[in-house]
Amino acid sequence: MMETKKEFFKKVDFTKKLQNGLLTLVSQKLLRIAWYGHAVSNKKIKILWLYVKNKKEAAAVFSDQNRALFFADKEVLVVLLDEDDVTKHKKISSPFIHSSLTKAEVLYTDDETAMPSDYYFWEYFKKFKERYIERQQLLKSYTDDFIKDELEGSCYLYLKGFATDLGAVELLLLGTINEKDSLTERLLIMEKTCPVWKTVFVKQDTDTFYLIEQQSLSEAGMYDDWGKALKKAQKKIKNIVLQIFDELDKNKQIVSLQQQDTVPFKYSDHLKQLQSNEEVEEIFLFHETVSYLDNKTVRCFYLLLITKDKVSKPLQEIIREIETADDEVQFAIIAHNRFYIQDNVYVQQGFYKKMCKSGNRIHTSGYQPAIHWRNNWYSDFHENLFDIKYSTKDIASFVDNNILVTADYLEITSKKVHECFVCTLQMYILYHLDYVPNSKNINTLLQLVRYAGEATEEFEQLVQNIKPLLFDDEVDKNKVREKNIRLEGQMLQNLQAFFKSINLS
User: Residue 411: how many CB atoms within 10 A of its CB?
Assistant: First the structure.
């Protein structure tokens, strides 16, 4: 015995529950060998491999605490192996024992069980890889036939293929295929163990993958408008598996998998606050304009920020600070979380798809999933109107029946005129871009009008003429004071001309 039964696990900082479970395995003579080391795909993740006599009895000792422990701060994954697993690795000459177990620390042996052989021959593993490719291609052919004939169960075949791919990686990285958990639960474990898997599926929430959830809603499992996204996911998963195979064969201490590409951006110094912000996952540069104003060349760059969650107030302030900087380099910034974009793909795909391309990505904080695009999308102006945070009917009525018809003078609050600007510009942008801006920043909204290509010389002149009304700093920063404004003469005429120029009726 390497240690006394009471002491051998205490040299590792396990939780008391985990230590008690391990001691129970020993006392019941279920534990043969215990190894402790890091995942070959992620040094941050620790794995406790337990070679046991009976997996079912050993699993009952730990109950559900393994999963809870893994997703807590301790980040220790308990993996149960049995004789069948060891035999399987020997049969296929898998590199798992060689790459993981021999590099891990042996915490315990029962002095009866021989250490599994770490014999590893590349030619045999090459055959394992070839068999995987053959099975994957065969399954793909079945899926393609189902799709071609629009048969029931098409999407379920995709999910079955995903599970098969995942099983191959689980076998090589963890040592055994996780057959007891659902595909979603297996993916949650794998993307934490091997972060490149994060690039496959967008999450609806922390424990739900959007595309898998969409397929489960179809009782017949029909191949529908999400088929294109399923195909892309299948291709991406296959590439990840092959990449893992190649990395394992290099016999390195850690499997190093490529993250998403970014392109250089000359003015990245202006974005340091965004790039270092934990809320920001990715930044896409999707447009650029050059103009000559006040005897200087002004460049405006259009950015899409993809954030982890709904944009916080501190991040909103950083965005506002960058957008309002009076410089020859300016920015128009829109920000959404990934699920918001995914959930609105049905009616806004035409806007987002053009910008969310690898050639536009100037920053990423790590492995991030690509948006799942539909085969078809349908822009619906009236459905999108519900996402505008004002009553569009009330604002349109006020503009038509109060602002545009006034002949002499108009008494109006600064807050009301700001609401009219924001809502009308949002509706105008929606009409031309199939996109609902959540920004209330007037400068950003005007830049989006310019991005749509609808800003004429007359429009630009009107913007200059009503600048004091458009850019009321107190209102624009939500420090609203109910101050009355009296509009008359040329300013009133300019205001009326502005709303007429962006009227959609």
Answer: 11
Cα 320 to chain centroid distance, Å, stands at 24
DSSP code at position 311: P
For 268-296, give the secondary structure using H, E and C. HHHHHHHHCCCCEEEEEEEEEEEEEECCE
pLDDT tens figures, 218-276: 654 555 667 778 888 988 999 999 889 888 877 766 787 777 889 999 999 999 999 99
Residue 332 CA to residue 302 CA, distance in Å, equals 5
Strands 76-81 and 42-52: parallel
The angle at the Cα of 51, spanning 46 to 52, to the nearest 5 degrees, equals: 130
Any idea of the CA torsion for 277, 278, 284, 289, to the nearest 10 degrees? -20
Beta bridge partners of 283: 305, 363
Angle, CA of 421, 427 and 430, to the nearest 5°: 135
3-state secondary structure of 487: strand
* Neighbour tally for 218: CB within 10 Å: 15
CA distance linking residue 483 with residue 69, whole number of Å: 57
HSE-up of 43 (CA within 13 Å, CB side)? 6
Q: What angle do CA 70, 76, 77 make, to 5 degrees?
A: 70
Q: Which of 388, 504, 381 has the alpha carbon at shortest distance from 434?
A: 381
The answer to whether the beta carbons of residues 150 and 171 sit under 8 Å apart is: no
Integer Cα distance of 34 and 382 in angstroms:
62
The pLDDT tens digits of the residues spanning 275-306 come to 999 999 999 999 999 887 777 888 999 999 99
Structure tokens given for 388: 């505008």
Q: Which two tokens stand for residue 488?
A: 């008359």
Give the β-pairing of 361-364 and 329-337. unpaired
Q: Give the max Cα distance, the chain.
A: 100
